[in-house]
Here is the input.
Amino acid sequence: MESRTKRTLVKSAPELWELADDLARMEAWMGGLVGSSGPVPVEVTSREPEKMLVWRASEPDPSALIAIELAESGFGTTVQITAQHSRPSADDASAALEGLLDELGSPERRPFVSG
Here is the structure.
């Protein structure tokens, strides 16, 4: 099954890339997509810095995949997420993807610390 979501976030593509291109986050997000109570091991299958990041689950469902696309858009960045999964409920997968967008857009999730 495929699920998609899209939102414009008030962050730059480099800021979002810094957050998304993090193995621990990718594993946690994959866990949310497949309905695991914890992180799921992943393998990055495609990486185009500040534009696109694709990863798939190594186990238990190697068909599960998440793709994030970033595009500058006015005062922010449009983030499109596409996921392939075998969850019986598309609503559960959509909720996981919306949570991913919420985490990326959160003001507390800033990769750069000013000092």
In short: Residues 2-105 form a domain with the Alpha-D-Glucose-1,6-Bisphosphate; Chain A, domain 4 fold (CATH 3.30.530.20).
